[in-house]
Amino acid sequence: MSLTITVIGLGQMGGNMALTLKAAGFEVAGSDVFEQARSRLAAQGLTVVAPEELPASDVYLLSLPTSAHVREVIEQSPGLLALAPKGSVIVDTSTSDPAVTRELAEKVIAAGLLWLDAPVSGGPKGAASGKLGMLLGGDEHTIERVSPMLEAMSAKRTHVGGPGSGHVVKLANNYLCAAHLLTTAEAVAMAAKAGVDPAACLAGLNSGSGRSAVSEVNFPEWILSERFDSGFTTGLMRKDLRLARDAAEQLGIPSPLLQAVVDAWHANPEQPSDSDDFNHITTPILARASQAEEQS
């Protein structure tokens, strides 16, 4: 089945996803509220349109910063509820508030459209290579309908439940990632203070039960290399942690460790700043170990 796709949100993730889908042979248009983003993708060969000129498509793929932006695209006149052809699919790859997602999914389905939340991991590199990981929240019929698109975008897809479930699991994942950055940095700092080279420490951790994607990927790729160019910002991680905390509170679940991680990430808004790469949360922890070593 040939799908026509409109990608809404042409940032690092959405823009790369659009180009990947175009390269895979799909008919793709892209849209963004910022003319600069549209011009950048047009220069790379993508068909772009202004937000008020969205074409009729089989799929509307959203890659937006927050649930508020998703709501605006869907509901604000003329939003997708009014513009999208009956039977078309709205796929939200953003990391959104699950409560808002479920509310919007009900409205989308009531309007004769189909819904899939499909938050992604793998960063801009994964989006550009078609090697993203995707968590899918929706029914199996909808997933089957857009499976050619999903296969072109991702290396791994996990169906975790109905609408909103993808966003629930994504928040759980990002909570663990945020926690692992803190705990792994403290473990590496402790080892460094005891005279163990950080790279050797990580090799040891990654051979044992303490390993994680943070120790296996983030530390060598972005932290020890001091590149800090993952494409995901501290501000976005802070937003996701607040969403995870709010979701736990709405469910009435005591989550003292989650709250401690939220507090740690918000303790100093300038170190790192919201615009910094999220891996910079480890910098003050590792720096304290270096300072202690110099003073000893």
Features:
296 residues, alpha/beta, Rossmann fold, N-(1-d-carboxylethyl)-l-norvaline Dehydrogenase, domain 2, 2 domains, 3-stranded mixed β-sheet, 14 helices, 9 strands, NAD(P)-bd_dom_sf, 6PGDH_NADP-bd, oxidoreductase activity, NAD(P)-dependent oxidoreductase
Detailed description of the structure:
With 296 residues, the protein is α/β, with parallel strands linked by helices. It folds into two domains: 4-162, NAD(P)-binding Rossmann-like Domain (Rossmann fold, 3-Layer(aba) Sandwich); 168-295, N-(1-d-carboxylethyl)-l-norvaline Dehydrogenase, domain 2 (Orthogonal Bundle). It is built from 14 helices and nine strands. Strand 1 (4-8), helix 1 (12-23) and strand 2 form a beta-alpha-beta unit. Helix 9 (165-193) crosses helix 12, helix 9 (165-193) packs across helix 13 (256-266) and helix 9 (165-193) packs parallel to helix 14 (283-295). The longest helix is centred in the middle third of the chain and has 29 residues, at 165-193. It is globular, with a radius of gyration of 20 Å. The N and C termini lie far apart (67 Å).
Parts with pLDDT < 50 across at least 5 consecutive residues: none
Assign a percent range to the helix content: 40-55%
Q: Specify the CATH class of the largest domain.
A: Alpha Beta
Strand order of the largest sheet: 3-2-1-4-5-6
Q: Looking at this structure, what is the CATH superfamily of the largest domain?
A: NAD(P)-binding Rossmann-like Domain
CATH T-level fold name of the largest domain: Rossmann fold
Name the CATH architecture of the largest domain.
Answer: 3-Layer(aba) Sandwich
Q: How does the major sheet shape up?
A: 6 strands, parallel
In total, how many domains does the architecture comprise?
A: 2
What value does the average pLDDT take? Answer: 96
**Beta strands, count:** 9
Beta percentage is: 5-15%
Number of helices: 14
EC number: 1.1.-.-
Pfam families: NAD_binding_11, NAD_binding_2
Protein name: NAD(P)-dependent oxidoreductase
Domain 6-phosphogluconate dehydrogenase NADP-binding: 4-161
